[in-house]
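Incident log, structure service

09:12 report received: a user says their structure output differs between two submissions of the same chain.
09:20 pulled the input from the user's history:
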Amino acid sequence: MDIYERIYTTSHARGLSIKQLADRVGISDATIYTWKRKGKPNGATIQKIANELQVSSDYLLGASDKSLRDTSQPIDLYYVADEERDSLLSANGQAISDDDWHIIKAILAKYPRKD
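09:34 re-ran on a clean worker, output below:
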């Protein structure tokens, strides 16, 4: 997968369009689309995108297949995709069950995301 595909796939897993992602990091969506054909983002831009998507910049650049990000930043549960739940979250060292995950998502639905 190239940079654009990783950004596209990850942003959609987080419920964000490319336009919404671009707006959040202060660039145009056309900039991201250019990475589909050519060019590469500068380090500061890729780090902003990685932070917004809560993944590592190495993952977006293809240097790693692990999407885990720097854990010094808190994880925003709104952006945890169902398939990432087990690799990103636990409670007291135990995996979060499907039933509990549905409860967590129901609680989050009561607090609208600020997009």
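09:41 both user submissions now match this output. Likely a transient worker issue. Closing.
09:42 reviewer note: The longest helix spans residues 98-109. The CA atoms of residues 68 and 88 lie 7 Å apart.
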